[in-house]
## 1
Amino acid sequence: MLRSYYLPESHDFEYIAVAPWPNYDSQLDWVENVHTIELWLNQYVGHHWERWAWATHSGHNTWEACVAFKWAKHRTLFLLTWA
């Protein structure tokens, strides 16, 4: 189920990745950007909360997506695709 909004979530995933939002032009496109990344994550990484969760960290900026992963290989795949 896609929620189509971005909020940091409680998780125990240790592998954090930060990458620019896709197609980031203005605040108006944030819903489309969240939806795009959620679709990609669910297809290539696995189910939300099982393999990944939205995250945040110090230094996290609004023009960046911050995602936590269960496994390092998924963080690497995400960064290769979106960074």
Note: Residues 30-44 form the longest helix (15 residues).
## 2
Amino acid sequence: MSYEGYSQFLCKNGHYWVINCNLAEDERECPTCFEPAIWENMVNETNGSYEDDGTRIDGYVELEVDKEIRCSCGECVKEVTYKIPKGKKK
């Protein structure tokens, strides 16, 4: 059985991105501001993401929004930054 999943990343500016586990190891630069990742969390989807009762089992971390920058109409979100969780730092 092979590993399936992805990694969640945050840079020091709170930008979030994910990289599939099958991609190169060196792609750990923020696509928004080009800062290196300072937080990483591996999400293992090999055996699914949820138990039958809805309990999450894949290690995904729900991130807390720090700030949203909206466009002038107020409807669209241009940029979201997240608070960097304690632990699981790179």
Note: Residues 5-82 form one domain.
## 3
Amino acid sequence: MSDDSVLDPLIQVAIYRLMLVLYNQGITEIHMGGLMRILGVSDLIACQHDEERVIMDEDFARYVHQMTQPRYHDQPLH
């Protein structure tokens, strides 16, 4: 889960948007195994990520907002 390069871009955007929704509801720490289960990942795989946590703050929210906005294919990300 920590290697974003192996995720399908649409799945990656869905994960980021879900995390942003949770952040906007006041949740600032996400249990990765639990998030994976919500997204339908099997328990056998998700349990391997049960010790991982992501802490979200305002910088995270800005980053996700920027990463999930439509952009031109040649527009660089900074």
Note: The first strand starts at residue 29 and ends at 31.
